[in-house]
Amino acid sequence: MSSEIIKVPDIGGDTDVEIIEIAVSEGDVIEAEDTLITLESDKASMDVPPPERPQGDQSVGERGR
Predict the structure, then answer these.
(1) Are 14 and 7 in contact (CB under 8 A)?
(2) Predicted pLDDT at 23
(3) Domain residue spans of the chain
(4) Sorting pLDDT into bands at 50, 70 and 90, what band is 60?
(5) Per-residue pLDDT for 54 more than 60?
(6) DSSP notation for 13-64
(7) pLDDT at 39 over 60
(8) How many CB atoms lie within 10 A of CB 63?
(9) Is 46 exposed, middle or buried (0-12, 13-18, 19+ CB in 10 A)?
(10) The pTM is what?
(11) Theoretical Cys-Cys bridge with 23: which of 35, 39, 53, 62, CB 3.0 to 4.6 Å?
């Protein structure tokens, strides 16, 4: 199974943000409009979608791989 690094978008200029929710689980099929994680800083919160529009179905693999 391949892995992909997700770049965190700018969330109000903060360099330190918390992941407050992981919205997908291992084996989930990911659509383009899905939320992967929710980030929160002192100033804002943001849902982070998949980095690119999926080609066919993308699934979540094992965490840490």
Answers:
(1) no
(2) 93
(3) 1-65
(4) low
(5) no
(6) T-S--EEEEE---TT-EE-TT---EEEE-SS-EEEE--SS--SS-EE---TT
(7) yes
(8) 9
(9) middle
(10) 0.66
(11) 35
